[in-house]
């Protein structure tokens, strides 16, 4: 996989470059600001970009703007946001195009290198990888709350769907049968007035758009 790392912290950037290199990925560039990231993406056309939200010079939304520009101008490049903060608007905008190949993970909550590398692979392959806290923020609503109609198990299944799990993965994760998961998924769609899509990316994005327009 061909990757560009955009992170203003030199220690964090070099750590990610080494980690990805050791995992067999080709790191095309390590960048510390949003403008340089856009230039590098245009030049190298990577498979995936790892980008922080707040980067120089203002440390406000340079990474956010760069990520959205990449999604718009280079749709073949997957984008994985790796940030200390949940930028709810950015998460919603990244997911809004229904194309997949996006992720949003929180730095402080990445506890396992293997899981992190799996998330990168999933996003590069056109899937999604969302930190549960990002999902929680996206699903948070003021009254009336559509989630109030869901049972506890249906909430668990919905959260797993939004994290990008397939039905089989949800069954293993929750230690239930595949048929039980299918039943809960259908109940979620029925209660939230959502029709099932062709793959887990489509249904995740539909749920997020419906609950957080």
TrEMBL record:
PANTHER family linked: TRANSCRIPTIONAL REGULATORY PROTEIN NARL-RELATED, TWO-COMPONENT RESPONSE REGULATOR
Q: Give TM segment ranges.
A: none
User: What are the HTH luxR-type domain coordinates in residue numbering?
Assistant: 143-213
Q: SUPFAM superfamilies of this UniProt entry? A: C-terminal effector domain of the bipartite response regulators, CheY-like
Residues with the 4-aspartylphosphate modification: 52
InterPro entries linked to this entry:
CheY-like_superfamily (IPR011006), NreC/VraR/RcsB-like_REC (IPR058245), Sig_transdc_resp-reg_C-effctor (IPR016032), Sig_transdc_resp-reg_receiver (IPR001789), Tscrpt_reg_LuxR_C (IPR000792), WalR-like (IPR039420)
Occurrences of domain Response regulatory (ranges) = 2-122
What is this protein's name?
Answer: Response regulator transcription factor
> What does the UniProt keyword field contain?
DNA-binding, Phosphoprotein, Transcription, Transcription regulation
